[in-house]
């Protein structure tokens, strides 16, 4: 490779030290050099331009000087007050406290999945059901959050297996929130195989957003997700269609209101990038989240079946997203979620507050996970680790913990400090630091330390791979593609699902 | 840096000027699940680490290499944290402060206010001005005056 590896050796002894620049980081992307500064402004320069910069030969009358000035790379004319405002706006999530509260209402599940992160229990393990009393305590703690809006997410196991408690918790939360007046949302992550008309009517009536798992085409999905006595894919598809129709029946816009589906990319899935995208589009999904497999729960034990090299994942991602871009060019409105998160920060000068890709991460201060038995964790991944024998991320329980004791817990403090990107090896020099984030629980699970060694991290490889791809697209600067990518950063709020109750 | 392989163990020596002691502790801690770890002073500004494997037959040369890499990582991280201390503190304080919010009634009720602690006055709030800023010996008096001046400069409420 030419480029950066030889560039600095060519500078020669006559080079002057560059002056007048704000601190920036750089990375070669497809032959050009990407510069980013701490505000998240970015700029591509050619290798010749970069060489001139490195030699301290920036001509104040040159187009490069103007480019650098327009993107806040020069000290001269740098507006400090505006910069402080922008940073405060981007980091405003730090004022909010945990808005995502994950309640694992049971570990029981009727499906067996090859990559199960949740450490499911058999359907007769009723001792893993959350009790109504614990559910109430979860709500009481959740409503004490400093966040003005909160989302209660029901997970399992299969949450529909403990539907009576879920119902009770929803009714209790609605009643209790009258005193708090928070923007309150409910979501449920379900395989849908235990859904029936009565449950659906309740969920639609109480505005519970429904999210399910689709691994791709039927042959792939059913190979990875076994439903005893049934077909996991057909059940999910059947209910996706019925739920989407129920939304239309009550007058909601189907382009905005529909079942969300999540993918877990296994080794087998890497073979079918286009088929997976087409399956999602066929189901009416407007967003696909190409998530790699996590190392938690059963997936830690089945790694030899489901895991893969992240270079292979990056190839899969590029093929799938190129296909998504093609579909967009033909008028289909569909986006890739990872891309949209990063692009919102790259193009939109904003932060979508996605808890695993922000700095500091949302562990504890952005999300809490409540186990069926009342134990509280800094994240659902922390809870998953507890279920496989490691209690490192338990920060309390609903019986004895106060809300402030959870936020001030030493584990939460350590997780915050470990996930500030500007203070970690590798990240401190990484060009993508302004847009990136890590999940310290992932580093702990895979590397034994919450601080992580990023150049060995599979999560870092994924984040770098995706940002390399996106910046390469921005470097090519095809107007149609850039317009599509910009559209992915547009957020349409699903206000129907918000229970906006005013405090009495 | 030097290392010496023994039977089931490895001994490594470090220059304390090159590696901060905290980094050595940090790296040693990472090994305590696999090894019995012993730290000792080998000479002037030299620290000796002995790793003795808990499992028989372990490749202790690999342990030595891993320890050195871990030590480098720990040392570098300490340096970065040191350079960015203000930034880390400010983000952490903002993150935890924003999430925890102000103390509520429960926290006030949970405070330990008993007969022995109720009248503690560590900030000297209950003290009179004369008592708090009275002239002391030459050195102490100057210090007290300086403190009083800074108090006035920041609003002067103490004087009223």
Automatic annotation (TrEMBL), chain A:
Signal peptide stretch: none
Top-level taxon: Bacteria
InterPro entries associated with the record: Aldolase_TIM, rSAM, rSAM_paired_HxsB, rSAM_sf, Sulphatase_maturase_rSAM
Protein encoded by which gene: hxsB
Needed cofactors: [4Fe-4S] cluster
A family per Pfam: Radical_SAM
Record's keyword terms, sorted: Iron, Iron-sulfur, Metal-binding, S-adenosyl-L-methionine
Organism: Polyangium mundeleinium
Protein's recorded name: His-Xaa-Ser system radical SAM maturase HxsB
Radical SAM core domain span: 105-249
Keyword Iron part of the UniProt annotation: yes
TrEMBL record, chain B:
Record region (Disordered): 136-160
Compositional bias ranges of the Low complexity kind: 147-160
InterPro entries, A to Z: HxsD
Bias (Basic and acidic residues) ranges: 136-146
Entries under NCBIfam families matching the protein: chp_LLNDYxLRE
Protein name: His-Xaa-Ser system protein HxsD
Source species of the chain: Polyangium mundeleinium
């Amino acid at each position: 490779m030419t480029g950066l590896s030889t560039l600095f050796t060519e500078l020669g002894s006559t080079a002057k030290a560059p002056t007048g620049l704000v601190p920036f980081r750089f990375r070669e992307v497809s032959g050009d050099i990407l510069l980013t500064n701490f505000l998240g402004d970015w700029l591509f320069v050619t290798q010749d331009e970069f060489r001139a910069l490195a030699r301290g030969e920036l001509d104040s009358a040159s187009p490069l000087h103007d480019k650098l000035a327009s993107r806040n790379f020069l000290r001269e004319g740098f507006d400090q007050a505006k910069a402080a405002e922008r940073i405060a706006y981007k980091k405003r999530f730090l004022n909010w406290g945990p808005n995502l509260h994950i309640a694992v209402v049971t570990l029981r599940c009727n499906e067996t999945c090859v990559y199960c992160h949740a450490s499911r229990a058999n359907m007769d393990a009723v001792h893993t059901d959350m009790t109504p009393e614990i559910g109430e305590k979860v709500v009481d703690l959740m409503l004490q959050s400093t966040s003005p809006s909160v989302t209660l997410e029901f997970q399992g196991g299969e949450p529909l297996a403990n539907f009576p408690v879920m119902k009770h918790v929803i009714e209790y939360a609605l009643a209790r929130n009258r005193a708090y007046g928070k923007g309150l949302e409910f979501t449920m992550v379900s395989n849908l195989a235990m859904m029936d008309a009565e449950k659906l009517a309740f969920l639609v009536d109480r505005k519970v957003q429904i999210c399910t798992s689709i691994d791709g085409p039927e042959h792939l999905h059913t190979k990875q997700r076994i439903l005893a006595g049934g077909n996991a894919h057909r059940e999910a598809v059947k209910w996706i269609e019925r739920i989407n129709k129920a939304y239309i029946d009550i007058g909601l816009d189907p382009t905005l209101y529909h079942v969300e589906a999540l993918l877990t990319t296994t080794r087998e899935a890497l073979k079918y990038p286009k088929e997976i995208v087409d399956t999602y589009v066929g189901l009416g999904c407007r967003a696909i989240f190409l998530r790699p497999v996590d190392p938690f729960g059963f997936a830690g034990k089945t790694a030899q079946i489901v895991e893969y090299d992240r270079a292979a994942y990056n190839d899969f991602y590029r093929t799938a997203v190129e296909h998504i871009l093609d579909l967009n060019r033909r008028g289909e409105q569909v986006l890739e979620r990872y891309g949209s998160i990063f692009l919102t920060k790259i193009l939109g000068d904003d932060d979508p507050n996605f808890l695993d890709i922000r700095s500091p991460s949302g562990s504890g201060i952005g999300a809490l996970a409540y186990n069926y038995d009342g134990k509280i964790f800094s994240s659902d991944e922390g809870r998953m680790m507890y279920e496989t024998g490691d209690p490192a991320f338990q920060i309390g329980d609903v019986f004895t913990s106060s809300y402030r004791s959870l936020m001030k817990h030493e584990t939460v403090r350590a997780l915050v400090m470990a996930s500030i990107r500007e203070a970690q090896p590798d990240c401190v020099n990484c060009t993508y630091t302004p847009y990136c984030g890590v999940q310290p629980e992932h580093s702990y699970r895979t590397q034994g330390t919450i601080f992580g060694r990023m150049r060995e991290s599979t999560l870092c490889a994924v984040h770098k791979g995706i940002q390399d791809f996106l910046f390469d697209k921005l470097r090519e600067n095809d107007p149609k593609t850039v317009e599509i990518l910009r559209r992915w950063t547009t957020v349409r709020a699903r206000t129907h699902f918000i229970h906006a109750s005013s405090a009495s | 840096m030097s290392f010496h392989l023994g039977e089931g163990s490895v001994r490594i020596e470090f220059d304390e000027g090159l590696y901060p002691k905290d980094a050595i502790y940090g790296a040693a801690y990472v090994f305590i699940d696999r090894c019995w770890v012993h730290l000792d002073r080998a000479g002037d500004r030299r620290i000796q680490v002995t790793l003795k494997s808990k499992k028989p037959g372990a490749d202790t040369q690999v342990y030595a290499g891993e320890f050195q890499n871990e030590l480098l990582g720990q040392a570098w991280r300490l340096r970065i944290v040191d350079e960015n201390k203000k930034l880390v503190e400010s983000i952490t304080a903002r993150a935890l402060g924003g999430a925890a919010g102000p103390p509520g009634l429960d926290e006030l009720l949970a405070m330990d206010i008993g007969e022995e602690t109720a009248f503690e006055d560590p900030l000297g709030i209950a003290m009179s001005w004369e008592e708090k800023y009275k002239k002391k010996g030459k050195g102490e008096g100057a210090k007290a005056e300086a403190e009083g001046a800074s108090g006035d400069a920041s609003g002067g409420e103490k004087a009223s």
